[in-house]
Structures are given as C-alpha cells and as structure tokens.
Amino acid sequence: MTMSIKKCTLEDLFILQKISYETFNDTFKNQNSPENMKAYLDRAFNLKQLEKELSNRSSEFFFVYFNNEVVGYLKVNTNDAQSEEMGNESLEIERIYIKNKFQKHGLGKLLLNKAIEIALEHNKKEIWLGVWEKNANAISFYKKLGFVQTGVHAFYMGDEEQMDFIMTKILK
Description:
Blueprint: E1 3-7, H1 13-28, H2 34-44, H3 47-55, E2 59-66, E3 69-77, E4 90-98, H4 107-121, E5 126-132, H5 136-144, E6 148-157, E7 160-170
Parallel strand pairs: 4-5
Antiparallel strand pairs: 1-2, 2-3, 3-4, 5-7, 6-7
C-alpha cells in the first residue's frame, strides 16, 4: 500500500475533471436533487472553469494516489482566490475529496497535512474551510484535527441555498 501526493498541472485537466465529478457526486447525490447536482457539477467542474482555477497563481491542486491510482484531490487558495474574505494570513482548503471506497485509509489526513505544509511555507497563521452543515462525517474529521467552527456562509447547490460551517485551525 503506497500513498503519494502530486501537484496538478494543466496537463491534468481531464483527470481533475473526472475525479472532481466522481467524488463530489458520490458525496452529495443522496442528499440533493438530480437537477441541482447536475447544475452544480456542470458549473463548477466544466473544463473552462477548471482550467481557469488551475491557471490562478493563488490556487493549487494536488492529487492523492493510492497504489498509483488517483483517488482524490485537494484544492487550496490564498489571497484573493479565497472564496471568502479571510485576509492574507489565511489559507483556504476549498476542496478535499477522496473516493468513497478509499476513505478511512489516512488519505484525507495526508491531504490536510499537505495544506498545513503549504500554509506554513506561505507564512499563513490559519487555515480554514467550508463544510456542509449536514456532512457530519467531515465535520467530525475536521474537529478531530483541531478545527473549530468560526462562522457560516451560504453555498448554492443549483438553485438551493445551503449552509456551510466555516471551520478554522490556528497554526503555531
């Protein structure tokens, strides 16, 4: 069993789209209408949108591999790429997704540690993320790793407004 992380480049665009669709759909399809899922997936993960995000100097994507298979990814944002105004001393984990059958293998923690490493390299004082208020497993995972809820913000799944908890971890 080998685990590794690799930074994504524009050459990874199609792989990124595939893993993005699969992991997001698997995570949320049972709690959302097919119409809202399709609307979100089409907007967030179309090739033009992902290419724009990959080209943004304030965003970075990383694949996580399990036995040489891409099984998840991480997206972090700094500066004005953050989805909320959190200031220049913060790094946002915008996406951290693992294929369902590869969860509970330490891959999420591996990606989270990568985000912390990047934050420290950029002299950030905190990392933060938004997590759907109904995603109890993710909330529990983040709490175990030292995140605390510091706010809420709206997230749109198609035409449905949902609430994300903003969770923050102060770095030492």
